[in-house]
Amino acid sequence: xxxxxxxxxxxxxxxxxxxxxxxxxxxxxxxxxxxxxxxxxxxxxxxxxxxxxxxxxxxxxxxxxxxxxxxxxxxxxxxxxxxxxxxxxxxxxxxxxxxxxxxxxxxxxxxxxxxxxxxxxxxxxxxxxxxxxxxxxxxxxxxxxxxxxxxxxxxxxxxxxxxxxxxxxxxxxxxxxxxxxxxxxxxxxxxxxxxxxxxxxxxxxxxxxxxxxxxxxxxxxxxxxxxxxxxxxxxxxxxxxxxxxxxxxxxxxxxxxxxxxxxxxxxxxxxxxxxxxxxxxxxxxxxxxxxxxxxxxxxxxxxxxxxxxxxxxxxxxxxxxxxxxxxxxxx
Length: 331
Known about the structure:
Layout: E1 15-17, H1 19-25, E2 28-33, H2 43-57, E3 65-69, H3 73-85, E4 88-94, H4 99-108, E5 111-115, H5 126-140, E6 145-147, H6 155-171, E7 178-181, H7 187-199, E8 204-210, H8 215-221, E9 251-255, H9 257-271, H10 277-293, E10 298-303, H11 317-322
Helix pairs in contact: 2-3, 2-6, 3-4, 6-7, 9-10
């Protein structure tokens, strides 16, 4: 196998059978290994979809600057692609995200601005700050910058429909009963669910929502309400994005960190895969869906990114103890 460029390495990730969860439930539970993308996360697909659509529309010109507000992974994906395609990046990131993601963005050459973590309706929110930067750059030099706007730019949802969802269906020969994952922008769950339900309308679609997010109550009761908090980064929101709008979720569950984190610690100790907290939330959601559906079903979730990207938090006993969270047995 050969590849012509970095973009051609994105996607076509394997499905990994999660042995412990499958044995525990009598279901076949698989994780889509998105941590195997070249930038290390599922957000490489989003970044590729956003850039391709912007180039095709003429909104992103050769040599232009890509601007985005991100919890980190989309920024990493955008930056590696920008480096390989002749663009530059300006990334706005909340300062409460992991040190490892910040350092990786700097290593990759992104121009990085850190801002306070605030509510989405605050004009200083990282998403709004990124848009303001792009607007200013274009005022100074028209057409020089493009704000990718991953939350409401439906090129995000489209690439998951075109790639992730199709891959899952093909990899399982259509033998899938349920798909569940958390929401950051909504692109993954919306695109995958559309792809799967076009082929089988009975595929169950689940939302694994961390504490501190408002989506569980929205899909359960019709109101955007949130409670508690989570250390998971890049997932959990308090508004309905354009990517998520119209997606039919028939199995929303709310997942606490205390329930989720032991699953990734067991996965590392017993199956050798080191993942982050968003994958833990997804795995806990898949476990809940399997228990709800009963033995004999096939369920897929997303293994978002490597745990090494969160070593200073998710695998740090001092940090975990400060939050009252469970520790890996070996730390």
